[in-house]
Amino acid sequence: MGDTNGSPRRIKSDITLLRILQSLQQSGGQTITELADELSLAKSTVHAHVHTLAEEGYLIESENGFELGLRMLDLGGTVQDRYLPELIRQKVDELAIETEERAQFVVEQDGVGVHLYCSYGKNAVQTNVWVGRHFPLHISAAGKAILAYLPEERRESVLQGEHVAFTEHTITDTEAIRAELEEIRANEYAINQQESTRGLRAVGVPIMNRDDEILGAISISGPTHRIKGTVLHEEIPDLILGVANEIELRLAFQ
């Protein structure tokens, strides 16, 4: 019998497998007992999934129990290559070297931001950022730069959702976010004022494709004692805007 409500059928075993992988990603390693307890699953169920993944090379057994294996990089690398033009990778690296801070390229998928590439200058501060990390668009400079240039219907869909506060500086009021997005479109860059991490500021600039659709955003992040004043409001915005302009021109005519 067909699905009467028109929604695809969710496969319970597939959902269980994904929950196991997500738990291992967040924890860095767990035993079968720990996974079963955390996910409220039978040990036999966890055992079957874990050992199948291990036999295929997606998990490895270690002193912590089971961890994600290097074969995961094959999947992740394929996805990264699909969404990350080599030109953008090169320019992000150059920005990290020139500013000596962390530079990153972020894209949007299903209304959330995804860190697709990060590059670290010699003075870069390591925070809770990694390739593949998902985060709400409203908390970061790159995320807000993307949100400002999404098609109106998609932008409003994101704005109608919940806006979680990551720090006391996070803007969570929908109308305040909407007003900031108008300012971002006027200035062509966004600023993160310790909204995702205390002590961290960032500047983000959108990257548009040849059809004037948002491709992603490049941002530079650094500690508040260095990213302030004219560095925050003039030097870094001008630098990234110039790089973004070059990327857009080269992508349009390559």
From TrEMBL:
The keyword Ligase does not apply. GO terms for molecular function: DNA binding; DNA-binding transcription factor activity. Coiled coil: none annotated. Keywords: DNA-binding, Transcription, Transcription regulation. The keyword DNA-binding applies. Residues 71-253 form the IclR-ED domain. It comes from the Archaea. One of its GO terms (biological process) is negative regulation of DNA-templated transcription. InterPro entries: ArsR-like_HTH, GAF-like_dom_sf, HTH_MetabolicPath_Reg, Tscrpt_reg_IclR_C, Tscrpt_reg_IclR_N, WH-like_DNA-bd_sf, WH_DNA-bd_sf. Residues 11-70 form the HTH iclR-type domain. This is ArcR family transcription regulator. It comes from Halogranum salarium B-1.
